[in-house]
Amino acid sequence: MSSVLTQLIDELNRGTLKVVDLTQPLGPSTPVIGLPPMFAPSPGVTIDVISKYDANGPAWYWNTIRMGEHTGTHFDAPVHWITGKDLPNNTCDTIPASRFIGPACVIDVTDDVSRDPDFLLTPERLEEWEAGHGRIPCGAWVLLRTGWSRRADAASFVNARDDGPHSPGFDARTSKVLAEDRDVLGVGVETIGTDAGQAGTFNPPFPNHATMHGAGKFGLASLCNLDELPPTGAVVIAAPLKIVNGSGSPLRVIAITPR
Question: Can you name the CATH fold of 3-42+68-258?
Fold first, then answer.
């Protein structure tokens, strides 16, 4: 084992580094993104027992699980959006595994979101963050810390009103800066999707999905525990299931960070 990997294990064992779970529990109560009625909906999570130490399997327990790919804490591959459909290596099974690991840049906008649930991260706010923490490096995961994961019930988490859901996200210009100028791996959010709740009304609609996936970048949604990460210095590992032609996948996202 290399000295670097040996040191990593030693630091974890000594407690100078810690592993932070950025993943929400996944089950029948997991919120599912809503779509207008003319579009096919994603199903909720259904878990059915195959056997549980009974006549169907006396010594073992296992289940069948049914859900959409983009459920709970999940990964968006480039093929998820029409802008990324013709890119090479754009599905969960073809993306090189080395691209699932990167440094984390955590941008805290919790106070802004507490005042305005429709808050959008602008390029100007991004530059303010960089003035204090350094330029976002190529290949980084940019994580938007909003405090949204503290909304424990599904209705509050989705935050839908008569005019649709209301939740924070990225200004379209910011997505372009991150994808093209900073060349990030992707973005991660605490909300149900990587676009703001009202992004369907934007022109063009859902700009973060369109820009990020069109540039071959990734998305992480429904993250939690971002308050346990520093602005810089953590590493995020976000490896989706290797679903053939998969547009995304539920996954366990972890971070390694100084204690």
Answer: Glucose Oxidase; domain 1 (3.50.30)
Q: Is 209 a catalytic residue?
A: no
Catalytic residue (choose from 80, 166, 209, 213): 80
How many CB atoms are located within 10 Å of the residue 182 CB? 18
> Helix, strand, coil: what percent of the chain each, to 5?
25, 30, 45
Regions of the chain where pLDDT drops below 50: none
Whether the link from the prior residue into 204 is cis, omega within 30° of 0, is: yes
- pTM, full prediction: 0.97
Query: Pick from 206, 183, 202: which is nearest to 76 by CA?
Result: 206
